[in-house]
Every structure is written in C-alpha cells, then in structure tokens.
C-alpha cells in the first residue's frame, strides 16, 4: 500500500511538472508574441503613421510659409499697380478715369485677399473682435460678386436681428469666399435649365433649433449659435467626394483650377473658434454648407 502511494505521488509529481512546464511554455510564448507585436510589428506601423503625418504637417507648414511669402511679394506688386493707376487717373479723360478707378478698386480687393492670407498665419487672439455677421455679409457683397460671373445670381438673406460672434473678421470672410468659389464652380459644372444661384443666409439658432431645423446635433454646453449657410443649385457631391471633402489636397478640379486646400482651411478656421462645419448635398440638385459659430451675445 505504501509502495502504491509512493508510486502515485511520484506520478502526480511528474504530471505536475509536465503541467508546470506546459504553462511556463505558454507564458513564454505569450511574452514572445507580445514582444513581437509591440516591438517588431506594431511600432514600425505606428512609427510609419507618425512619420507620414509629420511629413504631411511639415508640407502644410511649408506651403503656408510659401503662401505668406507670395502674398507678401504680391502685395508689393499691387502697391506699384495702385500708385500707377492713381497717377494716370489725375490727368486723363472721363472714360480713362473710370478705367483707372476700376483698377484701383480691384487693387483694393486683391490686397484685402492677400492681407487675409498674411493674417491667416498670425496668432488668432490679435485680430479677434466682436462683430455682427450681417455687417460682414453686407460689407463683403461687392467682393463676393467679383468672384462670380454675371450669369450667377447671388442672393443674400439677412435676418432682421443682430448675429454677433467673436472671431477674426477677415478669417471668416476668407472662409466664406472659399465656400462661394466652390459654389460657383459647382453651378458652372452643372447642366442647369434654371438660373445659376448661390444663396448666403445668416441666422441665429439655439441647440434644439439646430437639431430640429437642420438635424444637426451639438454636444457642447453652449446654447446659442450663429449659422452661415452657403447654398448652391450646382452639381451636388457624390459619395466618394463626400468622404474626402475636408482632406487637405483633395480636389476633383484640374491643377490650375483647384489645389484642394479650400475646405481644409475653412474647417481649420471654424475649429479655431469652437465652431462646426457640416453640409447637405443632393446629386444634381445642389449643396449647402453650414458654418456654425458660437453666438457672442
Ligand atoms: N459646393 C460644392 N458642390 C460640389 N462639390 C463641392 C462643393 N464644394 C466643394 N466641393 C468638392 O470638394 C472638393 C474639395 O473642395 P476644396 O475647396 O477643398 O478644394 P478645391 O475647390 O478643389 O480647390 P481650392 O479650394 O484649393 O482651390 C472640390 O474639388 C469639389 O469636388
Ligand atoms: Mg475650393
């Protein structure tokens, strides 16, 4: 009996040892697998992703710097054109005078654009101010029209109430110009039997109105918003474009017509002011872009 117990004990010992070895092996294999995934597989991927993101950011930064430099040099050229037109307008007949005045007006709006490009690179807080969005729309109407051909109707729908925001006036104007130029390209590419139309609307909405009127849900604590809507009756946006619209350098236009930076920069500006951008589009019916900014008071 004693002999039998001893035999059993030794066999159990062997079994336990085998089990222990087996478990140790499993543990070792798990550790090796973890090390393999973390250091050999995962890191190069992560590193690759970080590297490509970094390169993308570096590229964007360089483009930004180049754009500011071009804007700066372009401003100098505009100054020369402006002073020559000014000089010509002093001593000439009426028709030449009106041409010179046209040149001066165009120089003014071109330098507004280049200045907005230059200001884009500067710190936000320096240029932020309280302003009524209706004032921006009304004051900029002539500038907006300069981007549109004669056969495009521009409708401006202002509310009777003030719509104050706290932001950089020229950045918001820059964002609107981008949306208007996109709308122009969309109506020009559409095969329309009706007038080409771009409509700009300013309205005030609280959280629940945003959800009710536009099905747009705001998660923030903030209650009141100013909404800018740029609508067109252009070609609309297809599913593939929808997915990539805000990606920098994504464009469906030829390289001389678009760089694919417009909406990325609009999104950037809106984000800077804790705002949101969204859009609705129907193929061959048109598109509406909504900029939702915090209402100041
Ligand atoms: N209102 C719109 N209707 C139809 N498609 C649009 C509209 N707005 C933007 N898109 C699509 O989104 C793409 C990206 O727009 P985005 O403004 O970023 O770049 P872009 O207009 O192509 O070039 P850029 O603005 O840099 O000159 C456009 O190429 C176009 O295909
Ligand atoms: Mg664009």
Automatic annotation (TrEMBL):
All copies of domain Histidine kinase, residue ranges: 69-297
The protein's Enzyme Commission number: 2.7.13.3
Single GO molecular function: ATP binding
Transmembrane segments: 14-41
Pfam family for this entry, one: HATPase_c
Gene3D superfamilies: 1.10.287.130, Histidine kinase-like ATPase, C-terminal domain
Keywords of this entry: ATP-binding, Kinase, Membrane, Nucleotide-binding, Transferase, Transmembrane, Transmembrane helix, Two-component regulatory system
UniProt cross-references to SMART domains, sorted A to Z: HATPase_c
Reaction equation(s) it catalyzes: ATP + protein L-histidine = ADP + protein N-phospho-L-histidine
Protein's name in the database: histidine kinase
Natural source organism: Flexistipes sinusarabici
Organism classification: Bacteria, Pseudomonadati, Deferribacterota, Deferribacteres, Deferribacterales
């Amino acid at each position: 009996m004693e002999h039998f117990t001893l035999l059993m004990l030794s066999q159990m010992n062997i079994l336990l040892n085998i089990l222990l070895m087996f478990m140790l092996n499993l543990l070792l294999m798990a550790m090796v697998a973890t090390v393999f995934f973390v250091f050999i597989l995962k890191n190069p991927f992560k590193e690759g992703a970080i590297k490509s993101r970094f390169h993308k950011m570096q590229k964007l930064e360089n483009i930004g710097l180049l754009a500011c430099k071009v804007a700066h040099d372009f401003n100098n050229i505009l100054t020369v054109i402006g002073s020559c037109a000014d000089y010509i307008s002093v001593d000439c007949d009426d028709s030449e005078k009106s041409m010179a005045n046209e040149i001066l007006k165009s120089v003014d709006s071109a330098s507004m654009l280049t200045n907005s490009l230059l200001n884009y690179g500067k710190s936000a807080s320096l240029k932020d101010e309280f302003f009524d969005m209706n004032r921006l729309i009304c004051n900029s109407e002539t500038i907006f029209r300069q981007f549109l051909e004669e056969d495009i109707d521009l409708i401006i729908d202002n509310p009777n109430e003030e719509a104050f925001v706290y932001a950089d006036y020229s950045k918001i104007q820059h964002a609107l110009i981008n949306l208007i130029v996109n709308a122009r390209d969309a109506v020009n590419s559409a095969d329309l039997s009706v007038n080409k139309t771009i409509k700009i609307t300013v309205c005030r909405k609280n959280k629940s109105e945003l959800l009710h009127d536009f099905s747009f849900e705001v998660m923030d604590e903030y209650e009141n918003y100013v909404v800018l809507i740029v609508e067109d009756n252009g070609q609309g946006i297809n599913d593939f474009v929808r997915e990539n619209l805000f990606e920098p350098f994504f464009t469906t236009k030829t390289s001389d017509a678009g760089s694919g930076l417009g909406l990325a920069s609009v999104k950037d500006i809106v984000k800077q002011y804790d705002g949101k951008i969204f859009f609705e589009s129907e193929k061959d019916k048109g598109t509406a872009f909504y900029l939702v900014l915090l209402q100041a008071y």
